[in-house]
Each structure stands twice: as structure tokens, then as C-alpha cells.
Amino acid sequence: MKVQNMLSSNGNKVANQFIIKAAFTDGDICSTEVFQSYNSAIVQIDNYNSGAYQVTLDRNYWDYSATTGKYRNKFLCETKKETQAKIDSGEYILADLNN
Questions:
Q1: Percent of the chain at pLDDT above 90?
Q2: How many domains does the chain have?
Q3: With the CA atoms of 26, 35, 44 and 54 taken in that order, what torsion angle do they form, in degrees rounded to the nearest 10?
Q4: Which of 5, 22, 50, 58 could form a disulfide with 13 if both were Cys (CB 3.0 to 4.6 A apart)?
Q5: Which DSSP string do the residues of 42-97 spell out, in sequence order?
Q6: 17 strand-pairing partners
Q7: What pLDDT does 26 receive?
Q8: Could you tell me the residue range of the domain that residue 54 belongs to?
Q9: CA distance 94 to 97
Q10: In angstroms, how far is CA 17 from the centroid of its own chain?
Q11: First and final C-alpha spacing in the chain
Q12: Edge to edge, what strands does the sheet with 92-95 contain?
């Protein structure tokens, strides 16, 4: 497992904004990446051996604050509007990532 701070637009480490990467084999899942803001998981991306992936956002925290949103957008490489459209279409799943 590897934990790293997200980087600002200047390339500086951002406090309390993390990317957690885990590589493993658990059935069909071969790796997972998580964006964590402070102590809360915001986004989890599960990568499958088949090349497919699943994005899950925490139903309570995915749009918690402007700072969380800024780094969520950076992690997903998309805007909030694009993320909301993918939630609405069912492409992204909302779940409790912090149980």
C-alpha cells in the first residue's frame, strides 16, 4: 500500500488530501485507488483484471466542501458537473465508504 499527498498546482504537497494505492489480487479486483480528504474516503476506484474499473463515491462526503471538491475533481480528472452526470447515469456508484 502506498500513501501520498495530493499536489497543488505549484507542485507542493497538500496537507490532509491523500491518494492511497493498493495493489493486490482479490478475486477479479487487482488494485484499488482511494482519494481521502482528512479522515474520510471520498472516491474509490477498483481496477479489475479485465481492464474494467468501477468508481464509487461516498454518499455523504463526495461533495462535502469546496476543498474536497477541488481535489476530487483533480483525482477524477473531471468537473463536478461531469461527476454528477455519471452518478445520475449510474456509471458511478454512491455508497458508504466510511463505515
A1: 81
A2: 1
A3: -110
A4: 5
A5: EEEEEEETTS-EEEEEETTTTTS-HHHHHHHHHHHTS-HHHHHHHHHHTSEEEE-S
A6: 37
A7: 63
A8: 2-95
A9: 9
A10: 11
A11: 20
A12: 2-7, 13-26, 29-37, 40-48, 53-58, 92-95
